[in-house]
Specification:
This protein is about 50% helix and about 15% strand. The protein has about 375 residues and is of the alpha+beta class. It has 2 domains: about 15-90 and about 140-295, no CATH class; about 325-370, no CATH class. The two termini are about 60 Å apart.
Amino acid sequence: MNENNNSSREDQRNIAEEKLKELTDKLEDGVKAVRNSDEFKSLITTMAKFPHYSLNNCMLIAMQRPDATLCQSYGAWKKMGRYVRKGEKGIRVIAPAPYTIEKEVDKLDANGKVILDKDGEPVKEKKELNLMSFKAESTFDISQTEGKDLPRLGVDELVGEVDKYEMLMGVLKEISPVPIGFENIQSGAKGYYHVEDKRIAIQGGMSELQTLKTCLHEVTHAMLHADAESDISRNRKELEAEGTAAVVLSFFNYDTSDYSHPYLASYTTDDTLKEFKESLGTIRKTSAKIIRAVEERLKEHEQSMEKEQSVEKIQEQNAEDIVADDSQGYANVGRRILGTVRILPDGEGGSRPSLLDKLRIERDRLSKSSFGNNAVNEKGVRI
């Protein structure tokens, strides 16, 4: 029997693993399809104009404005037809500041040896040296600007209800390593993971499907990318977070491909496709962890519902038995029984008898029926 159970569980695990592989393969194909579209090519052309931020600057942006989605300097936004709104506070980052100095150095010959004068002293020459320093500079998120629209993929917010939505959100709150809350996010982002405060914020008022997808995305960030000093690139973090959310929802038959595939494609280039493939293993592993947690909770929920239904059925049966026994004779006998006093339909006080009391009453009835008016003691002997 145990061998059969073990075999069955192994089969179920294999089936689940095959389904996860199928979903991650589908995810990869979907991303490739989007990347080959004209809309995506237009987006890439635009994004090429944006500066590449270092890991340190990504950390600075995340700490100062965790809901930022697309950052650029004041001048760069102006070149693209957008302007920073009055009163907006810049996000401080570290920018390179190259400079040149003129320095007197030893003159070298073609072989790199120091040239000496007639007195044997090194011959000097002035030479410009290019040095690098750094300075603080302000950058601004797109939510702080207004003006000309930027090319974008046609990604619309997900709509639709989710079966057992409250329970699924409850599971995510339980497995999330940080608290999850709802708020009005001014930047237009649907959610974010706050690196410093160690919390997740989700935009309120979205559809159940969009809310659940966003929550899965941010919980994955909290699970995998909590270390602010991690050397994982921002692209890879986004690939892993959105990929995991898409696979989990797809496993439970909720299709987010119209949203997730373009999102994932926006974080991949020809150079990072290899990185995306490497991320698929992480996506599969994290998806499996979340799916197991959800399935376990679903099973617990079903078992709890079955117990509640069973208790309700017993209570209904007991209520029917009490109503059926509400007779005048029953009420009179009941006066001699300790129990919960109740009011019978005829207005007389009665009691709810125990099973032992019911047996005694039935015994008395049978005794009277069999022996006429002869009395019977508690042991069933006529007296």
